[in-house]
Amino acid sequence: xSERRVTDGELETMSVIFKMLSDQTRLRILLALxxxxxxxxxxCEALAMEQSAVSHQLRNLKAARLxxxxxxxxxxxxxxxxxxxxxxxxQVLEHVRH
Length: 98
Known about the structure:
The chain is an alpha+beta fold. It has one domain: Arc Repressor Mutant, subunit A, CATH 1.10.10. It has five helices and three strands, in the order ααβααββα. The chain has a three-stranded antiparallel β-sheet. The longest helix is centred in the N-terminal third of the chain and has 14 residues. It is globular, with a radius of gyration of 15 Å. GO terms for molecular function: DNA binding; DNA-binding transcription factor activity. InterPro entries: ArsR-like_HTH, HTH_ArsR_DNA-bd_dom, Metal_resp_trans_reg, WH-like_DNA-bd_sf, WH_DNA-bd_sf.
């Protein structure tokens, strides 16, 4: 295995992402957004959670650049920022099931 060179900034960013992935609610949100975008109301319904709790987690995920949003009138729709995070989740799930 070759040595990986990682900068301090990259380590910090990786740490933030792993922190985001360490919470079941945030994982459930990320999985719910797989291949689709949802508004907060639909996420609340899918997760059976209050709007304030979901909104709080969405702010965290957006700050970590794991999700993005777009406005359509009064509604805000959320989606994954890119598919990379799903690859990480899939790898961990594969490890868990192994």
